[in-house]
Design a protein that fits this description.
With 260 residues, this protein is α/β, with parallel strands linked by helices. The protein has helices spanning 3-18, 22-35, 52-61, 74-83, 122-132, 156-169, 176-185, 208-222, 228-244, and strands spanning 42-46, 66-71, 90-94, 107-113, 133-144, 150-151, 189-200, 249-259. It has a single domain, classed as Rossmann fold (3-Layer(aba) Sandwich). It is built from nine helices and eight strands. Strands 1, 2, 3, 4, 5, 6, 7 and 8 form an eight-stranded mixed beta sheet that branches. α5 (122-132) links the parallel β4 and β5 (133-144). α1 crosses α4 (74-83) and α6 (156-169) packs across α8. The longest helix has 17 residues, at 228-244. The termini are far apart. The structure holds S-adenosylmethionine. S-adenosylmethionine binds at residues 15, 19, 47-49, 52-53, 71-73, 76, 96-97, 113-115, 118-119.
């Protein structure tokens, strides 16, 4: 297995673990409620990952509907296909979100959850969403504002450096701040935004921030903020806060919905 496909597989495994957690299940339910899919509808799931949302959407639109799961990582597609096995209405394609394999004005709804953060040319993806939606079609985007993280740690200055390193590792770390005007510019109307906070007062593998802090601190090591020993000390401090009942983490995700 090449180094690249190894990391693609690691990313898929990480998503398999973390997107089953209650924090994310709750967010997914919020997305589904907002989309309000009907039997027979056609939906395009951009950056479908391992297919948790795609599966639920396929169940909602039923056999008379269609869901296209689309992702650039073949490992994600492979896991998503397994997850949706037996559902003839679910179909998967690999590619980059800047060019969606769909005809103009053919979809009732489009979802794009936790994807645009990683995308360099967000306007191009919004233009594609608009292109494939039918007139009156609806869309949901969920994005995180990583600049607004709250974390109780023993070293605030180091915490800032760790999150600054995360900020520079992704193209759009605080997209929610800019997304409303961008959607308007791309012809969307009825633009609504809701905050979906993730608040963890426990540092345990059952909560989103535990794995996320491991991932984010690994990135900080890669970027030279600190070394592996200092990383372990930082994480040990978070474990200590769990034991003393003073662990606190919060980040806001924002759910945007709009119509054409
Ligand atoms: C954090 S996961 C979210 C998965 C899924 N949307 C969910 O909420 O469960 C981000 C996904 O976006 C995919 N992705 C990132 N950039 C992409 C791009 N330019 N085109 C297609 N997929 C992309 C990644 O491969 C990954 O599967």
């Amino acid at each position: 297995m090449s180094k690249t496909s190894k990391s693609a597989a690691a990313e898929a495994q990480e998503l398999e673990r973390s997107y089953k957690l209650a924090d994310i299940v709750k967010q997914r339910q919020h997305t589904l409620t907002t989309l309000a899919l009907q039997p027979g509808e056609k939906v395009f799931d951009i950056g479908c990952g391992v297919g948790f949302l795609t599966l639920e959407m396929a169940q909602q639109v039923g056999k008379s509907g269609q869901v296209i799961g689309f992702d650039q990582n073949p490992e994600m597609i492979s896991n998503a296909k397994k997850r949706c096995e037996g559902l003839q209405q679910a179909e998967f394609h690999q590619g980059d979100a800047i060019q969606l394999p769909a005809q103009d004005q053919t979809f009732d709804a489009v979802s794009c959850t936790q994807v645009l953060l990683y995308v360099k040319d967000v306007p191009k993806v919004l233009a594609e969403m608009r292109r494939i939606l039918k007139p009156g079609g609806r869309m949901v985007i969920v994005e995180t504002d990583w600049r607004g993280v709250v974390l109780n740690s023993g070293d605030d200055a180091l915490t800032k450096q760790i999150f600054a390193a995360w900020d520079s590792a992704v193209p759009s770390p605080n997209l929610p701040v800019h997304l409303g005007p961008l959607l308007k510019k791309h012809g969307f109307s009825n633009i609504q935004v809701e905050a979906v906070p993730i608040i963890n007062t426990e540092y345990s593998p059952n909560h989103f921030s535990c794995e996320m802090m491991k991932w984010i601190t690994k990135n900080a090591v890669k970027q030279g903020v600190f070394n592996e020993t200092q990383r372990k000390e930082f994480l040990a401090d978070l474990e200590e806060r769990e034991r003393s009942g003073s662990y606190f983490f919060c980040v806001n995700r924002f759910l945007f919905s709009a119509k054409l």
